[in-house]
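We modelled each protein-ligand pair independently. The example shown here corresponds to the adenosine-5'-diphosphate entry; the chain sequence is given first, followed by the ligand as SMILES.
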Amino acid sequence: MPPVDCPICHGTGFKIVVKDELSGAERCECQTKDRARLLEENAQIPPLYRNASLDNFLLPRDNPISYRDLQGVLVQVKTFARDFPTDKTPGLLLMGEPGSGKTHLAVAALRSIMARGFEGLFFDYQNLLDRIRSGYDQNSGAADKEAYRVAMEADVLLLDDLGAHRVTDWVEDTVTSIITYRCNNRKPLIATTNLIDPEAGNAQRNAGGKVDYRVTLEDRVGSRARSRLFEMCRVIRMPLVGDFRMRRSVPG
Ligand SMILES: Nc1ncnc2c1ncn2[C@@H]1O[C@H](COP(=O)(O)OP(=O)(O)O)[C@@H](O)[C@H]1O
Ligand SMILES: [Mg+2]
Ligand SMILES: [Zn+2]
């Protein structure tokens, strides 16, 4: 509700603007500010990332190659956020080592999109599955069943640490249905994962006669969810920059 004491709109939520000698109604600032605050409150971004933004993402100062590569990533994420929403690839998938800044960038992109009025929702993958499962197992409170529906319907869903969970058929089906639903309905998804994938520049399994035993994205979420993800997302592979907490950095 617009505040009645707003000096601009006096509680109507609209203000009159004059452009090229024509006057029209526009949403008042008190409304857009309120909406931004509301969106931020509802997004469930964890406290660690409360301030993560595209402006405070730092670049490694002591390694020119890492600097250049990470700067490239930052530019891509900024472009994604700026051009959002786009039809062809409405989503973003950040892949790379732990500590390379994936969640920071994902949250920063989400926040920048929310600042333009879109509704965003952060979900830790493991936590989402736990909540959905507890909803089914105990046939319990509506709040838990909600998790599944909410993950389907949110304007923009951030699924953090995709695949960080042991594999069961149940997990595979649940993740596939969420991702497929979102993909079919062109609902944007931002995801991060530490898992590897041949299409993201990681070696093919069995490359050069050697078997790579590392767990892949496909191992964890199944082939259908994986191919849907690649279909709907711009894929960004994080450079090997090491763990942020171990390096010296400057503003990007
Ligand atoms: N380039 C960066 N600039 C500023 N903070 C960063 C950067 N990379 C990571 N961080 C911070 O370091 C911590 C770990 O990064 P995070 O994004 O969680 O890594 P990942 O998700 O890849 O494991 C977070 O607090 C994050 O805000
Ligand atoms: Mg992370
Ligand atoms: Zn107002």
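The chain has two domains: 1-41, 43-251.
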